Structures are given as structure tokens and as C-alpha cells.
Amino acid sequence: METIPYSSLQIQCETEKRRPTYDELLSTNEWFEKRREIISRDVVCVKCGCAETDTVRDSKGKFHNFQLKEVYGPKLLEKSFGVDKSFGVIINIEPENYFMEFLGKRNWFHIHHKYYILSKLPWQYENDALVTMCNWCHNEWHLNNEAPVYDSINDKFVKCNFTRCDRCSGAGVLPEYKHVQNGICFNCHGYKYIEAIGLYEI
After folding, report:
1. Distances (CA, A) of 173 to 22, 26, 49
2. What does each C-alpha distance from 102 to 50, 54, 105 come to in angstroms?
3. Residue 137: C-alpha distances to residues 116, 131, 175 (Å)
4. 188: buried, middle or exposed (CB in 10 Å: 19+, 13-18, 0-12)?
5. Do residues 173 and 4 make contact, with C-beta atoms less than 8 angstroms apart?
6. Rounded distance between C-alpha atoms, residue 147 and residue 172, angstroms
7. 185 in helix, strand or coil?
8. DSSP 135-170
9. DSSP 3-state helix, strand, coil percentages of the chain (rounded to 5)?
């Protein structure tokens, strides 16, 4: 994905007399740097422990999702390479103590905000307010929970009673539509909460 500096996005939006969308904020250099920092710290999804998947094609032209797993013993290594050979995949991984685990679905990482503050841009949070989740766990979390939203009034944080989007359940994205504008929810435009639509800070 191509990214741009936030300052360039600001100029673009000022020219067009509008506020940036949440999806545009997540396409800035600043967010990608923060995202990289959080993923580097967590390495895997903090909920299910999965890694991001990649795709390989077998000898029959069929695509398979996989993730690398560390090998903990010779038997596991032998079993895993047997599966790979059945797919016709040539293994060439360094170091050799890793193997491919094939999965039925694709995982990619989201950065989950434990809470939102209206005056902050997505990358302006302390690192302990952000965690790595896979797309499936992130969506499930928002189906069953609500991240609190705060506004700063007289130097105090006051909780806002916002209504989460009923299309994406407050996730801002829909994993099953990843192929369309990275799965951004067209109902809330990625803002997660109805009252927040158009507020570039959240």
C-alpha cells in the first residue's frame, strides 16, 4: 500500500475543503510507522497467537494460505514436510527450524485501540493502548465489546456515549471484504461510531 505523510494529506484535504477519512489516516507514514512498532513488539495476534499468512501455489495451480511455524522436534518436522510435499511445494526456508503450516483462511494484522480519545490521531496513543490482533480476532472483539471513547473537557477525560456502527459492530472494517478498499466499512467509513463520522481525530 502506498503511504503519504500526514502533512500532505492535510494539504490535500484543505484544498478539497474536507476532513480526511479514517481510512486515509491509516494510509499515512505516521500510522504505518506506529503499526510497525506495535507488530514488532507483539509479533503475533495477542488473542489467538497466529501469525500473518502468505500464499503459495501448488503443482496443480491451486493457492494455499500458510504461516511459518517453529519446529520443536524431528517428528513434527517430518510430518510437516510430508504435508508440504503433497502440495508439491519446494521448501527453501532459512533457518531450517521452521516449516509451513497450511491454513484454510487468510490472517492479516490489525492494530487494536483499547480506547479512543477524540483529540488524538490514530498514531498519537501510547504503545500500551495498542495491541496486535488478526483480522478475525479483531472483528470478533468488536462484535462482543465496545472500546470506550473519551473527549477532553477542561483537561479531564469524559466518556462519550457513542453508538457503534451496526454494519461492522464498531470494527471499522469487514474482513470478508478485504479485497474492496481493504475492507473499510462503507456505513461508518472506518470511524467505527456513528457520531464520529467526519471527525478526523478518531
Report:
1. 11, 12, 21
2. 12, 10, 9
3. 19, 12, 10
4. buried
5. no
6. 12
7. coil
8. HHHHHHHHHH----EEEEETTEEEEE-PPBPTTTTT
9. 30, 25, 45
| pTM confidence score | 0.66
- SS3 state of residue 18: coil
- Residues forming beta bridges with residue 160, ordered by sequence position: 149
Asked if 9 and 18 touch (Cβ cutoff 8 Å), the reply is no
The low-confidence residues of the chain, meaning pLDDT below 70, are 1, 54-104, 198-202
Q: What is the pLDDT of residue 81?
A: 37
Cα 72 to chain centroid distance, Å, stands at 29
Q: Helix, strand, or coil here: 13? A: helix
SS (H, E, C) 76-109: HHHHHHHHHHHCCCCCCCCCCCEEEEEECCCCCE
The pLDDT tens digits of the residues spanning 111-170 come to: 999 998 888 899 999 999 999 999 889 989 988 998 888 887 777 788 888 888 888 877
The single-letter DSSP state of residue 4 is: B
3-state secondary structure of 8: helix
What 3-state class would DSSP assign to 47?
coil
